[in-house]
Amino acid sequence: MQLNLTFPVIPIGVFSDSSKIVTVAGILLQYGINCIEVTLRTPQALTCISTLRKSFPKLLIGAGSVLSKDDFKASVDAGATFIVSPCISDLLIELSHKFTQVQYVPGFTTPTELAHALQFGCTMVKFFPAEYSGGVKFLKAIIEPFVSFTFSIIPTGGIMPSAMKQYLALPNVYACGMSYIVDSTLIDNNDFQALENRIKETLDSITQ
């Protein structure tokens, strides 16, 4: 499947409160952002995904930091639309071929890892951690030899609104993953106005 995003941005968060994540998703949808990625870094993450699925049937929901077959299957059962890993896993790539209803997005940092993912049939990959691995210039250099492949890239890791246009201008870059938009500190402090301000800042960086 292909992720049909309304904007080329995927908000990525660490969530431990399912009621607050409903509020966050509602705000994102108000601004036209139709996706969110929930990282499996808290015991409540799968509950958050399940709650989102029940509350917003059409929302594109990602499960992030997926590293095992059990987490992959549990994320699908909870209602995830796409599954994201920070690395290349042959085990999960093979498993993803059995779950065609979801998009699997493995992570890469080097040309070797990218080649590995593409040769195993992956059509969407995550460049991670983007800003800590050389940023836009490094990613541009990596993808230049792969012109014969058809694939999409989601750079993720430390990306700020000011860098988004540079990433999105690169061939194959489909969207940017950003934790900046749904910062856990803002959510824990119920500072949803600051969250809205970050959403506006991010969308302005894309459209202006």
Structure description:
The chain has about 210 residues and is of the alpha/beta class. It has a single domain, classed as Aldolase class I (TIM Barrel). The chain is built from nine helices and nine strands. Strands 5-4-3-2-1-9 form a six-stranded parallel sheet. It has a three-stranded parallel sheet with strand order 6-7-8. Helix 1 (about 20-30) packs across helix 2, helix 2 runs parallel beside helix 3 (about 70-80) and helix 7 (about 160-170) runs parallel beside helix 9 (about 190-205). The longest helix has 16 residues, at about 190-205. It is globular, with a radius of gyration of 16 Å. The mean pLDDT is about 95.
Topology of this protein?
Layout: E1 9-13, H1 18-30, E2 35-39, H2 45-55, E3 60-64, H3 69-78, E4 82-84, H4 90-96, E5 103-105, E6 107-108, H5 111-119, E7 124-127, H6 135-143, E8 152-155, H7 161-168, E9 176-178, H8 184-188, H9 192-207
Helix pairs in contact: 1-2, 2-3, 7-9
* Number of beta-strand segments: 9
Unreliable residue runs? none
Q: How would you describe the shape?
A: globular
What is the helix/strand order? EHEHEHEHEEHEHEHEHH
| Total of DSSP H or I helical runs spanning 4+ residues | 9
- Give the averaged pLDDT, no decimals: 97
Secondary structure: helix percent: 40-55%
Report the structural category. Answer: alpha/beta
Cα distance, first to last residue? 30 Å
Highlighted features:
9 helices; three-stranded parallel beta sheet; TIM Barrel; alpha/beta; 208 residues; globular; 9 strands
Describe the structure concisely.
The chain is of the alpha/beta class and 208 residues long. It has nine helices and nine strands.
